[in-house]
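Q: Structure tokens for this one, please.
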Amino acid sequence: MTRAIDHTQLHRTAKYFMDDGRAGTHEEALRLLQGFGLTVHISEELADTVNGQIALLTLVNTARRTFLAGVEVVAAPGTQLLVSLATSTTLAEAVVELGGVIVDEARPSWPSAIIGNMTAAGQTAPSWRLSWSGWRGGVVPARHGPMPTEPDAVALSPAIAAAACIAEVFAHHSGDHPMAGRRDAGLSLWRPGRSWLEPDADEPTLSYLPSRLWLIGMGNLGQAVAWLLTCLPYADREAVNLVLQDFDCLTESNDSTSLLSSLSAVGRKKARHVGEWLEARGFTTFLDEHRFGHWTRRGPDDPGVAFCGVDNALARASLEKAGFDLIVEAGLGGGTQGFRSLALHTFPADRSAESIWSRDAAGGLDELASQPAYEALKRTGMDVCGLTQLASRTVGVPFVGLTAAALALAELLRRLHGGPGMALVSGSLLALEDVDTVPTKAEVYSHGHVPVR
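A: Here is the predicted structure, written as tokens:
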């Protein structure tokens, strides 16, 4: 019998299979995801590096929310944990803390991610090799042989490699892209839209990091920003001031999309939950648990740079009214055709935020009412209001939010290092080689910075 669910319990990736008609119920959609698994291999050499650990733990944390058969790490070394993405003391313990399973041997039928230049013998499913260099990260089919994994690459690069890998594995499992496992996929954070495989002599060594940020929205995107800020090599995190704004509470559904969420935290205020996580890692946080809107005003001592990661058009339209000097806004696509898409806007820009986002809500029950999963929910007695709430929730996957968050932080890092500014970055995890950008003049970054460690 179909279990009655509401929008707070919905697994946002399972919704993909409900909306495209492949699953007749939420339970059937979950069973499809329960057939998705991933094996991860990491060399001992890279397991003892910061970037190698970022790649591994980002893979585990992101993938376990989508691949419900599990994420298995083969013989994860017990080396000392060098990053604060988990509270454990060893890398193997951190894998388990974040939802991975340590195994002695790989399952030949599961796709695999390889961190390092070893081979995964006996694999019958596709294998991807993660690579990062400078401001660039991505994956190639493992058969291509050794790839660079530079220890001095920008810390966002191995995280982007992990996101690209999970996107390809998901496309392989779901069978919705014939090239998954047969192509490279990656991104340049210094020059989005250029090939991530080609060295770029203009990429600078990372020297400065932003120190004062106002984060609007502590869901998928906001939590991904928090995760990535913790990857960055801050010399003194206590000197970094973060305002976290969100009025909402965590629900069961957030566990499927948001990197710091867990079922044990359901019911907690999002801003408080993320604030405690960041404070435990040394950052200084300030909480604002009001809705963001046209009434919001930045105070004279508040950060001048805002990151917005909410899916509310009214809030987005009000961004420039709050008094920020620089705004980076990230949004994710929706629907079965667009959920892997993302777009990044910065303000001030030629077009205002108010002119970009209309006040009309998009989508709704009419588009989905005929799909078997929604018909099944009607038969359980769910009313139109409940069905509309379910329909209004977009399909969500954590690897797209992670990629958008990396692009948002890269926008600040580029400007801090005299690089190009972007008024718009638009693309899809189905085709990272085809990212569109609109450049803009970037003023000298004067919104607070600190040196790298």
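A few notes: The first strand starts at residue 37 and ends at 42. The chain has 14 helices and 17 strands.
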